[in-house]
Design a protein that fits this description.
The protein has 399 residues and is mainly alpha-helical. It has three domains: 67 residues, no CATH class; 98 residues, DNA polymerase, domain 1 (Orthogonal Bundle), CATH 1.10.150; 137 residues, no CATH class. Helices cover 46% and strands 10% of the residues. It contains 17 helices and six strands. Strands 1-2-3 form a three-stranded antiparallel β-sheet. A three-stranded antiparallel β-sheet has the order 4-5-6.
């Protein structure tokens, strides 16, 4: 189906033309070609493209795209092509946002006719659905990625300047705004109550998620919730006291952004106390962890505390221990030190968790946790089931 042809340029250099030709009934129905500087790159593209076209409905989709190229492209066409042809994996949130934008009237407009006025009108329309200006800002940011490459990549006449102008106007009109930085940290009393609650629950129901360990790990490792559940045993460098955090959140890149992060002694001790019953160190779903944390806060009367606030508390703690910005960044994974400047006002006060009783509990091995994987723990009582715990998806344990 595909061939690679060597091409000599006028300047004496060599290029490699990868070609794909598909026939149906003796007639060519699809022809694709792309030029590369290296034969190996051309071969890789050819193999990837042939494999893709061999998938169900992929060929028909390519033929539809070819047909669409002969008509005036709309913003929806640009969005579809961006999602379809991006070699760099697009995160789930970005994909959902771009798909949602296609439900608005601006998506039906021809690319050439979209102005900054249209984009501002879209921002206003989105805000009127009841979302916050921060959400609208995220929508424009993801849409801006399409505007940035549509013209140079596919010759779709989307005006990048129109997007930039619209963002300025939307900001000044209050249609968009940056997310407010939270300063909420759990107090010692709140954390003690949470730890006791989850330790008591773990003792009564060994099959429940060890939330007291996960909360402590979130603080001492400064890891996000979605990062915690992804960490595998193979990603742990015990001697180096570090862990590989896969797909770390970062503006412009998330998928494939794998970063080695240092571990504090307490975080490593918590990991070593976990049983190796799965590929992941904490083999639980983010939904289960989030629901359990939210339920406990409500039950204990702890207001306005989110799981992500634990990361903020952990970063703050490192500064209070006297670590400088580079050392904190090596733990937290921040690429930009600028974002850590908000913490520099913190005084070096030492470790406020040093004498907490629960610290010994979360770093102590619990043999009952090993029973969870094999289902050897006692069947939960009806009263336990009515308490709101649900079966956890990855290991089939209750929350």
């Amino acid at each position: 189906m595909g061939t690679i042809v060597k091409r000599s340029r006028k300047d004496g250099s060599v290029a490699w033309l990868a070609q794909i030709v598909i026939k149906r009934g003796g007639k060519i129905i699809l022809r694709e070609n792309k030029t590369f500087e290296r034969r190996s790159t051309a071969s890789a593209w050819l193999s990837q493209r042939e494999e893709h076209l061999g998938e169900p409905e992929a060929l028909e989709s390519a033929l539809q795209t070819k047909s669409n190229d002969n008509r005036v492209p709309t913003l929806a066409d640009a969005i579809d092509r961006y999602v379809r042809e991006s070699n760099k994996k697009i995160g789930r949130t970005k994909t959902q946002v771009l798909k949602a934008i296609k439900d608005f009237s601006i998506a039906d407009k021809p690319c050439a006719s979209i102005t900054s006025t249209d984009i501002v009108a879209f921002a206003r329309e989105k805000l009127e659905t009841g979302v916050q200006p921060q959400t609208v800002s995220n929508y424009l940011a993801h849409l801006g990625a399409v505007f940035a490459i549509a013209r140079p990549a596919w010759n779709y006449p989307l005006d990048r300047q129109a997007m930039q102008d619209a963002s300025i106007v939307a900001d000044r009109l209050g249609l968009i705004t940056k997310s407010r930085e939270r300063d909420r940290r759990p107090t010692l009393v709140e954390l003690d109550r949470l730890m006791k609650h989850f330790k008591d629950r773990s003792s009564a129901t060994p099959s429940s998620i060890p939330m007291h360990r996960i909360i402590a790990f979130a603080i001492f490792s400064t890891r996000r919730q979605e990062e915690i559940v992804k960490i595998a045993w193979k990603d742990l460098d015990k001697e180096g006291m570090r862990v590989l955090v896969r797909d770390m959140k970062n503006p412009g890149q998330k998928i494939g952004n794998d970063v080695w992060c240092d571990l504090q002694e307490e975080a490593l001790a918590i990991v070593e106390a976990m049983p190796k019953v799965a590929a992941q160190i904490f083999p639980y779903s983010t939904d289960a962890i989030s629901a359990s944390f939210t339920r406990a806060c409500k039950l204990l009367g702890i207001d306005d505390l989110r799981f992500h606030d634990l990361r903020h508390d952990g970063v703050s703690r490192l500064f209070e221990l006297g670590l400088n910005i580079p050392r904190v960044a090596s733990n937290s994974g921040h690429r930009s030190w600028t974002s850590l400047k908000r913490y520099t006002h913190l005084r070096q006060t030492g470790d406020k968790y040093d004498a907490r009783k629960w610290l010994a509990e979360v770093t102590k091995k619990d043999p009952t946790l090993k029973l969870v994987r094999h289902g050897q723990f006692p069947r939960r009582r009806r009263s336990d089931r009515n308490g709101g715990s649900a079966q956890q998806s990855k290991m089939k344990v209750s929350r």
